[in-house]
Each structure stands twice: as C-alpha cells, then as structure tokens.
Amino acid sequence: MAASLFFNLVLAISLLGPGAAGSCHSKRPANIVLIMTDDQDRRLGSTDYQYVLQREMIAKGTEFINHYATTANCCPSRTSLLRGQMVHNTNVTHVNAPGGNYDKFVLSGQDTDYLPFWMSQAGYRNEYIGKFLNGYSQKNYNITPKGWDHVDALVDPYTYVFNTPVMSLNGQRPIYYEGYHQSDVIRAKALDRIEYLTSQEKPFFLTLAPSTPHVQNGVYQCMPLARHANDFENVTAPRSRNWNPSDEIQKQKGSWLSTLPRMNESVEAFADHSFRQRIRALQGVDEIMEDVINLLDAKGALENTYIIFTTDNGYHIGNHRVPAGKALFYAEDSNLPFVVRGPNIPPGVTSKIPGAHLDIAPTFLEIAGLPRDQWPPFLDGQSLLHQWHHPDSSTGEGSGGGNAKETLNVEFWGLCIVEAPNAAELGVPFRNNSYKTLRIVGEDESWLYSRWCTGETELYNTAEDPYELHNLALNATRESIRLMDRLNAVLLVTKSCADNICRQPWALLQPETQKDEILSLKQAMDPKYDSFFAQFPRVAFKKCLQIQDIDNEQPYYPPLPETGALGQNYRNRTDNYKSEGEGGTRYIDSGAQHGSWEQRNATLADINKTAREVTDSEIYGNATMDKRRRDLGIVENPEWFQWIG
Questions:
Q1: What is the pLDDT at residue 627?
Q2: What local confidence, expressed as pLDDT, does residue 516 receive?
Q3: By the 8 A CB rule, do 141 and 155 touch?
C-alpha cells in the first residue's frame, strides 16, 4: 500500500514538470529596487514635501532616521556603497583627481569586484539607470561600468544639465534626449526596464539614480520639471537654530568656517530660492517612485520587492553660515533620508537604529541569499536586514550607551566649495577641509567629535545640542577632557579600520585585565579607565592635503602593517594617476525648460522619437562648435566648479 502511494506521488510530481517537487519549499528571492537621489538633505525636511514618498514608502515601510554617509560627497559615498567599505579603504576620496572619480575606480581595479558582481553570483540580474560615478563622461563612456547586465548612465558634462539629458547605454555612443527633462527620461527608462525584468525568471537588482536635487553647475540651483516650476511659492528654507548664527557661535567652528561672514538679505533670499528649487525638483523623483511602485504592483511583483529610498550625501542651506553645499561632518551633510518597504518590513515605523551606506552591500547579499563564505573578505559594513525586519530591536549589549553599533566614523579629504553665487567672495575653494570625525548616536550617549587637518577640535553633545552649536572642546572641563580621551581612542581605531573592526571598534580598546570588558562609551567613562585612554596619541594631520596619505595622517592604532594597509590588498595602486574622463566641453544646450504636464506620462518610445546620437564634433569640438557654444551663451565656469560633485 505504502509503495503504491509513493509511486502515485512520484508520478503526479513528474507530470507537473521540472521544479514542482521543490515548489512548496522554495520561493523566488526578493527583488531589490534602490532609488538614490543626489545631495538630498534629511535634516532640512525636504522629504516632508515628497508626498508620494510619505504615502507609499514612509507610511507603508520603515524610516531609519540615524542612517549616515561616512563621507559627505558624491563619488566617495557611492563607491563606499558599492564596495561595502570605508572610504579610507577604497581610496576614492573625492569627485576629481587626485582624490578620485570613475577613472580612479577603474584603474584601482575595484570595478571588477563590487556589488553587481556579487549579486550576479547569487543569481540576480543587475541593472543601473542614472548617475553612476563622477567622471563617467563623453571622454570615457566606452569604458562601460562592469558587472551590470544593463547600464544606462548619465554622461558628464551633462549629468547636471537637467534639460539636456545625455546618456550612454552599455558603453555605446551617448544619446541626447532632446526636448525632455532628465527626470522624465529616467522615469520612462525605469518603467521600460521593469516591464522586461518582471517578465524574466531571475530576481533583479535595479538602481535608479536621478541627479536631482543636485545643483545645475553654473546656475547654483537645481532645475525642476516645467510642470513643477512654480510649486511651493511661499516656502522658505528652515530657520533652525544653526541658521546664520551669531559671531559668538560661529567663532567656535574650526578651519575655514570660523571666519565666514553672516549671510546678508540677498544671500538669505538665494538660500530660500535654492530650497524651493530643490523641493520642486524632488517632485520628479516622486513621480518616478509612484510609477515604479504602480507598475511593480500591476505586474504582481511589489510584495516580493524591497524598495529602498536614499541619497548619496546630505546638504546644508544656511546652516553654520554656509549658503549652500555639502562635504562637512555636521548632521545636515551626513545624516541621510533612508526608507525601506518590502517583505517583512513593518509599515509606518520610525527607527533610531543606526546604519551607514557601507552596510547596504552586505544587506543586499543577505537578501540575495549568497552564502557567507562567498561574501568578499574586505567588507567593512554589516547587514542591516535584521533591523529592517525588527526596527524596534536593540542595538545589542550596551545599547544606548554608545556601543559598537552606535559608533560611526565620518571622514573627508581635500577641498570644499560653496554652491552659491557669492562663493568666490567667500574665498572658495577651501583647501583645508580634511577631517576625521566620530559620531556616537546612542540614546544615553550622543556625541560629535572631530579633528580638523588644521589641528582644531570640535566636540558637541548632540543630545542637548542637536544643531551642533556649542563646541565643548574650547575651554574644556575636566569631564570634557576625559570624554575626548575616549572619543580620540575610538577615532584612532576607526580612521584606519578594516573588516569587522569598522563596526566593532571597542574590541581593540580593552585594558589587559579582561577581553570585552568595555563594550560602550558609557562603560568606558568609568574613572578606572582614565589612565588607559589618556595614553593614546591624538588623531592628527601633519598638513592639509588633497589626498589620503599614510605618513601625513600618523599615528594609527593599531599600527598599520608594512604592506596592504587601508584596503591596498584589495585594490591596485593609483598614485599620481591621470584622469582621462574629467571635464570635457559642453556644446549642447536645449535652452528651454522641459517636463510639461503633457510629458508627465511620456513613454520611452515617445522620448526616443527626438533622441539622437551625440556627434564627434559635439564631443571633441571644433571652430563651429565653439561658435555654437558662444551663441548658446554657455559660459566658462571657474576651475573650482569641477569640484561640485
């Protein structure tokens, strides 16, 4: 009888076809859609004006309000995300040479071993649409970003010219999508790819990366779609407590910030206009998000898709007297919008559990189900999937007291600029903007500690002083000195950390008496450890350089090995590299503002009707093109404009 039942069961399964036997126990891995804007603030409240984000993501997913970029600049932050490493280990430290850009990413060999390759190993199809890395341009477009099954990337010098979108599909000749706004082009391309991806058997990882709300270089403002050009007419930039502060407050800042003049009425008016332009432009991102979610739903794929909304770095407007820009360690620049919806993500939850962009790659690998022994050995981040599923959970032992999970390293090398019309008057570019910073984000212990390349120190109690105004390192009390001894020791570890130590720095800061004796800042503040922490040398720079230099940033703890330090075991040397992709002259300008209501639902077929290849003369230039450039009124920007990443 039993044998007969078994035979009938096998026969039934064989008639159902291949894979039926495992269908009750297997499920297609979840898809991943990453929507990443460019230079979007969280602290200024831009997301409050994104009504689709509020309705479809925040209300139906979880918002993580303590998510940070470890370097507040475009190319370094994006590389950190794609490699799962601290920027000191990728050594892509800026948006142009000598710090770094797409050319440096390629020459270092990191473009052959990063996220899309690992996701492919897990069986995913990987696609990318939008801004990739700074320096991917009309000069080097044929050096296709590797690892992607389909990559349709914006091409410099048009990446931030929103009404003149130029893109290269899989390294082919760039295409100019004449008569359309970049946001509509990316929206149409996204929908076209989702139509295809949802028809395939493989799970997919799709990145959508519009350049919004980055400024359009030369006009110091983002350019919204025409249909949103007059939205929010009465909105002004938020007047938080660190908006255009008094002399007494400003002189407490380090480096170039301490001497900034107060913004006058015209500069404040520009800041208000800049904020309005940003939230107007973000309406186009909302439309991308809305259409993507609706199509995923229509295709039956939404419930099995993680959708992540974030940006590469934050932004400040008027904070600490800087009219507009990024690249600082303050919360406006490093604390990012980060929202997730998808399988097992609880709806309508706000979580304070910290995370960073270097944690995204390992999170995606866990979603993909790639066995841990196949993960790259150099990951500095850790998976956030557990906290996505359990956003009210603890950060572990020592929770709230500044434990390992609540300890974040923030770093920067090179110059900084101001993205406002009075930038030259203020003295840009500021070449003394390198710093090493530690941020503690516990409920009970919440601090910001930073060491500038100029030798100055800033310390803020961010629980009592969330706008980072009162520098406790000046005229420091005995308690502040004890605290800085601890924070300095942790920063000494994190500034050169690798692998698990980046998210477990306390593991290297244990007295000899007992392993794992100190698990948090709160524990470390016990007076019995005063002499232990006081013995560590101070984090310092010899001088302000535009690159990462090992000798310039001595000392290190633990001491660096003679070879392979700072990620060098996993990348090629790029000392004094020459960048071929930077710059390039722009000979095309639409001269109009596109994105009318009539174009709101334009398809890729509609957009392709007016699309054309960019010609050789438009790439390399000639006398005719030079005249066209003059006729179009395209002006030469100052050299420092190239650093608007």
A1: 85
A2: 82
A3: yes
How many Cα atoms are found within 13 Å in the side-chain-facing hemisphere of 533?
Answer: 24
Q: What is the pLDDT, as a whole number, of residue 69?
A: 98
Crossing angle for the helix pair 182-197 and 265-298, to the nearest 10 degrees: 20
Q: Which amino acid is at 265?
A: E
DSSP at 219: T
What is the structure's pLDDT at 641? 65
Mind listing the pLDDT tens digit for each residue in 332-345? Answer: 999 999 999 999 99
> What is the Cα gyration radius of the chain?
25
Report the helix count and the strand count for the chain, using DSSP H and E: 19, 17
Q: ∠ CA(315), CA(319), CA(325), 5° rounding?
A: 35
**Residues 74, 75, 416, 453: which is the catalytic one?**
74
- Given this model, what pLDDT does residue 194 score? 98
Active-site residue 74, yes or no? yes
Judged on CB neighbours under 10 Å (0-12, 13-18, 19+), 501 is: middle
At residue 616, φ and ψ (nearest 5 deg) are: -60, -45
Half-sphere exposure of 639 (CA within 13 A, CB side): 2
**Closest by CA position to 445, among listed 485, 403, 394:** 403
- Rounded to the nearest 10 degrees, what angle do helices 74-83 and 360-368 cross at? 30
Cα dihedral across residues 628, 634, 638, 639: positive or negative: negative
